[in-house]
């Protein structure tokens, strides 16, 4: 299978991020889709189950889980045909060329599972794993070093009904933060416990709080003196109750850009967790001035990275752009403050929302989405001057 047209297309693919997200299409090009940005992507799963093998006519199938709100069919949606498999999962494919583009499941209406091989522009590196390797064909070995699970990953193995074959795994909790926020520190210190209990990972996403404030047109708490006076006491109370140390920062507000950019650099999940932890502690436990380059470098080195190099790399344009883009994507996702936790398409704002998030994760949310619908239609009858 080799011809000039195909070679041309193959050289065009791989690795480019489209402006405003990632795109993909079927073989004939009739059906196209767009993913708004990295914030909407979950893990990448290579599924070896029999359904996937047959459906894709391949040894295994690779999916990326995408939050619904971050996904659109940009053209040809009317050409999509559906086929429901025994587990209830629905395959969506082009009626002309037959490319399988997505799997959907009624039990996970907040997400759609996109076949990664249909991407035209590639997403950033994602957490990967092999699932259902007990069904793996004998003529293909997985030697890429990724974790392998007999069926689903351990987080969901106890609840096999929740994840049908070919549907995504438990997504990490996206944690939008800025070091400038003491509530972000409190939430960071507690979040991993909540996540572990729910069988979820945590994905820290550095964003510029000032950018969120600009987008929503409101002042930060430290810019409203009465609010800040209250907040200091509120934060100290919470720190005392939760057993999280909180001390006065070196200065406040301060410029968090360097620390946020350093935290945005490419690195492993485990390394990022160390870096974020070290920089948060620097501000809110040790009173370190995070606008100081040498202090940032020292804290990053303490977290096991080359701090001087990280500080240097953080000055690169693409790193600055990445932080800006993350912030814009956060705004587009409805994030207006920090900390915000995004999980399965639902936003939780502030340290105080962690308990609500836990209920949501445990399937004990006291509301259903429709409860909020009438509120969206309430008109205003006065405007503040
Ligand atoms: Zn097609
Ligand atoms: Zn499968």
Features:
single chain; globular; four-stranded mixed β-sheet; alpha+beta; 385 residues; 2 domains; binds zinc ion; Glutaredoxin; Metal Binding Protein, Guanine Nucleotide Exchange Factor, Chain A; seven-stranded mixed β-sheet
What features would you describe in this structure?
The chain has 385 residues and is α+β, with helices and mostly antiparallel strands. The chain has two domains: 13-157, Metal Binding Protein, Guanine Nucleotide Exchange Factor, Chain A, CATH 2.170.150; 173-361, Glutaredoxin, CATH 3.40.30.10. It is 34% helix and 18% strand. The protein contains 13 helices and 14 strands. The protein has helices at residues 4-12, 50-56, 154-157, 182-197, 209-216, 225-242, 257-264, 269-284, 293-302, 307-313, 317-332, 354-361, 373-376; strands spanning 22-25, 32-35, 41-47, 61-67, 71-75, 80-84, 90-94, 100-104, 111-115, 128-131, 173-177, 202-206, 340-343, 346-349. The strands form three sheets. A seven-stranded mixed β-sheet has the order 6-7-8-9-4-3-10. A four-stranded mixed β-sheet has the order 12-11-13-14, sandwiched between helices. Strands 1-2-5 form a three-stranded antiparallel β-sheet, with no helix packed on it. Helix 4 (182-197) runs parallel beside helix 6 (225-242), helix 8 crosses helix 9 (293-302) and helix 9 (293-302) crosses helix 10 (307-313). The radius of gyration is 23 Å and the shape is globular. The protein binds zinc ion (ZN) (2 copies). One zinc ion is lined by residues 47, 49, 51-52, 132, 165-166.
């Amino acid at each position: 299978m080799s011809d000039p047209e195909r070679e041309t297309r193959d050289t065009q693919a791989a690795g480019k991020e489209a402006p405003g997200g990632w795109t993909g299409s079927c073989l004939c090009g009739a059906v196209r889709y767009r993913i708004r940005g990295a914030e909407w992507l979950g893990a990448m799963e290579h599924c070896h189950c029999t359904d996937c093998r047959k459906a894709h006519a391949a040894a295994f199938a690779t999916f990326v889980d995408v939050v619904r709100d971050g996904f659109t069919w940009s053209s040809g949606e009317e050409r999509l045909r559906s086929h429901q498999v025994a587990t209830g999962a629905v395959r969506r494919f082009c009626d002309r060329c037959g490319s399988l583009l997505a799997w959907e499941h009624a039990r996970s209406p907040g997400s759609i599972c996109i076949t990664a091989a249909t991407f035209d522009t590639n997403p950033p590196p994602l957490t990967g794993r092999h699932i259902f390797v007990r069904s793996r064909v004998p003529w293909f070995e997985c030697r890429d070093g990724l974790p392998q699970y007999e069926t689903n990953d351990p987080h969901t193995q106890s609840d096999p009904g929740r994840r049908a074959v070919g549907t995504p795994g438990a997504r990490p909790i996206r944690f939008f933060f800025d070091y400038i926020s003491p509530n972000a520190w409190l939430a960071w210190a507690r979040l991993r416990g909540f996540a572990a209990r729910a069988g979820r990972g945590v994905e820290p996403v550095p964003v510029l709080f000032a950018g969120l404030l600009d987008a929503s047109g409101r002042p930060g708490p430290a810019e409203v003196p009465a609010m800040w006076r209250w907040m200091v006491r509120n934060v100290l109370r919470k720190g005392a109750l939760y057993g999280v140390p909180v001390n006065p920062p070196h200065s406040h507000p301060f410029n968090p850009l360097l620390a946020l950019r350093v935290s945005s650099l490419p690195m492993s999940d485990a390394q990022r967790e160390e870096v974020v932890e070290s920089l948060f502690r620097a501000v809110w436990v040790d009173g370190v001035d995070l606008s100081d380059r040498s202090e940032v470098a020292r804290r990053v080195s303490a977290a096991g990275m080359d701090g001087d190099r990280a500080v240097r790399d953080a000055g690169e344009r693409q790193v600055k752009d990445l932080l800006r883009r993350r912030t814009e994507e956060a705004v587009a996702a409805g994030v207006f403050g920090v900390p915000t936790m995004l999980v399965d398409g639902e936003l939780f704002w502030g340290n105080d929302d962690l308990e609500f998030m836990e209920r949501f994760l445990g399937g004990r949310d006291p509301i259903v989405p429709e409860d909020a619908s009438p509120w969206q239609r309430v008109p205003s009858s006065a405007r503040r001057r």
